[in-house]
Design goal:
single chain, mainly alpha, Arc Repressor Mutant, subunit A, Four Helix Bundle (Hemerythrin (Met), subunit A), 2 domains, two-stranded antiparallel ribbon, 11 helices, 2 strands, elongated
């Protein structure tokens, strides 16, 4: 069973999110100069390094621009180019978990239709590691094996966009799992369902793969 602990975002991510909200709500206009670092430090109650990291995040997203010797200016909210990996770092846990669940069901269905023998071998390997790690209460190894198992399913879907999305989500998912689980009990309980999922994919049974993936997700939510 997963605990309802939600990992804290870094201070820089939190400041970046608040600044972005202020900009999108009109507190700062396009072309306007952002307050200088000491003012921002006082406003948010954080240090200089945190402010600089937050500004870097928003510069990378296209929301701010830095002019050497002049200051930091609002670039505008149109066409923000925030990388997905950065967006996921400040994502709400429940939002991210919901999207990941949708992905897992779809990739299971697609994998059942498109998997190769090589894909099955990769899935079987990680499922074995998952089982061994779970019974030895090796939490880190178990989480890695679980994520690698589902990533192998994503690859087997033969949809590169789905696979890339799942891989991007998995980076943050691992961090959440490390906080949400204190031991491998939940992994032991769901081992049978994961083995059923592998068998349905092996049998090219898309409906059963979909339903089994949904059962795994339902167990996590308990």
């Amino acid at each position: 069973m997963m605990n309802n602990l939600i990992p804290r975002r870094s201070l820089a991510d939190e400041v970046a999110a608040q600044l972005q909200q202020q900009i999108t709500q009109g507190k700062y206009k396009t072309g306007e100069q952002l307050p200088i670092e000491p003012e921002l430090m006082k406003s948010f109650g954080v240090g200089r390094s945190t402010i600089r990291e937050a500004i870097k995040v928003l510069v990378n997203s296209g929301l701010l621009r830095v002019q050497q010797g002049l200051g930091t200016f609002i670039e505008g909210t149109e066409g923000i180019k925030e990388p997905l990996s950065q967006r996921l770092k400040r994502a709400d846990f429940n939002d991210m978990e919901e999207v990941r669940q949708i992905l897992e069901i779809k990739i299971a269905e697609k994998a059942a239709a498109n998997r190769t023998e090589k894909d099955l071998k990769e899935m079987r390997h990680w499922l074995t590691v998952r089982k061994q790690s779970a019974h030895n209460n090796l939490l880190n190894d178990c989480i890695d094996a679980d994520i690698n198992f589902h990533t192998a399913i994503a690859v087997a879907s033969k949809n590169e966009v789905l696979a890339d999305l799942y891989k991007a989500f998995s980076i943050q998912v691992r961090k959440y799992f490390l906080i949400s689980f204190t031991d491998t009990t939940s992994f032991i309980k769901t081992q049978g369902l994961h083995e059923q999922l592998l068998e349905s994919i092996k049998a090219n049974d898309t409906k059963k793969a979909w339903n089994t993936a949904a059962k795994i997700i339902g167990h996590r939510a308990q």
